[in-house]
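Chapter review: from sequence to fold.
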Amino acid sequence: MIKPKFGGTLEQVQLSLANRDIQLIVETIGSENAPLWLLLPALSTVSSRSEWKDFIDVAKDVRRIVSFDWPGFGDSDRPPITYNADVLCQALVAILQYIAIKNNQSITIIAAGHSASIALGMAAKYSNQWEKLVLVAPTWRGPFPTMTGLNPQKLSWIRKLISLPLIGPVLYRLNTSKTILKLMLRRHVWVDSSLLSPEKVLDQQRLSRRTGARFASAAFVSGGLDPAADRSWWLQQAEKLSCPMEIVLADEAPLRSRKEMELLADHANHKINIKGRLGLHQEFGSTLARRLLSF
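The token string follows.
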């Protein structure tokens, strides 16, 4: 049974992706009359709307908040389809349509990590309906393309390998061992090592190993969810925005990711700095919420 992650009301949004009927899990909390914030979870092996809990605990009394799990992640359906940026854009469109039916007001989109590139990909067509776009520790490249400098197309063999029966699940299980997950979280996601308790790492491992999770996860890691092969894409998308853009810089993000954030921040209407890495919206969620509310 699916349970709320931050004490909200659960609903299901149905859409068709790659000729499959997909169910997205959406959670809503806060006053119906308050300004509406749509929170996009970061895309990662352990992506989940629960990342926003501390943030929501601060903001829920003064904002109407909606968050959801991306297809292939969290509590949403995780079918064995080809996951890419277009698939995620279709999912976000379905969520925006769901919100429009229930709320006749403009929304602020707050996108964490790699989900920033999905939101920016919709700039030209949809941003005239948005109050503001806030990008938190934004990235546009998956981990392997960032580390290697390779075009995601040259890493498609990883996605194909993980998709294979028998060998795919075995390889994925090896790459979601507690040791590998702990290393990833410590080096790229969280600053505070005390967060890496055995219980927390086990919780993240269980999330990463849900049935069907390997398909979207492999796409993320190998660049399959990247919208483009070079940074000029998202700088061009920023120019297409019809709403203000705010950038939250992660002071302790990996060097290459930090450089990309700073380049995008040069095109922002406003930017703020918060201690943290790529998971700052989770680790420093309370601080982030207070900063955004004060601004």
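Two observations follow directly from the output. The domain at 9-141+227-294 is CATH 3.40.50.1820 (Rossmann fold). The longest strand covers residues 20-29.
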